[in-house]
Amino acid sequence: MSEEDTQAAETSEEEALPVSLDGINQNVVKSIPITLNVEVGKTKLKLKDLMAVAQGTVLELDRSVGELMDIKVNNFVIAKGEVVTVDNNKLGIRVLEIVSPMERIREG
Fold first, then answer.
1. Residue 22 gets which letter from DSSP?
2. Which of 35, 45, 55, 72 is the most exposed place for a label (fewest CB within 10 A)?
3. What residues does CATH 2.30.330.10 cover in the chain?
């Protein structure tokens, strides 16, 4: 392969990969796996109360019925939503509010 052919091949490969101004391949960044969690609620217990938990114990959480759930990535709330059923046997979350970046910083 001639030097011109090699340069042409490299150029076409570069054009196919979306690269930002700082040289980071956006496809690589977009393929990074993340874990998204939905927080139903939380509570604080004393150790003795935790040790008394048995099957059938009800633990009261800090949320009310109908209150939106927190959607979190890396323990930061990024959105809020409501629990829905999907395909009649799985749970999902309908995103109803997106938390602004400034609110995310304040919460952190």
1. T
2. 55
3. 35-107
Q: Which residue has the higher pLDDT, 91 or 13?
A: 91
Residue pair 27/34 in contact (Cβ under 8 Å)? The answer is no
Residues 59-87: tens digit of each pLDDT: 999 999 999 999 999 888 999 999 999 98
Task: Single out the residue of 72, 63, 107 nearest to residue 93, CA to CA.
Answer: 72
Topology (CATH level 3) of domain 35-107 = Surface presentation of antigens (SPOA) (2.30.330)
Which token pair is 82? 């409501």
The 3-class secondary structure across 55-108, one letter per residue, is CCCCCCCCCCCCCCEEEEECCEEEEEEEEEEECCCEEEEEEEEECCHHHHHHHC
Dump pLDDT digits (tens) for 2-35. Answer: 555 545 455 445 455 666 667 788 888 889 999 9
Confidence (pTM): 0.66
Are 97 and 68 within 8 A, CB to CB? yes
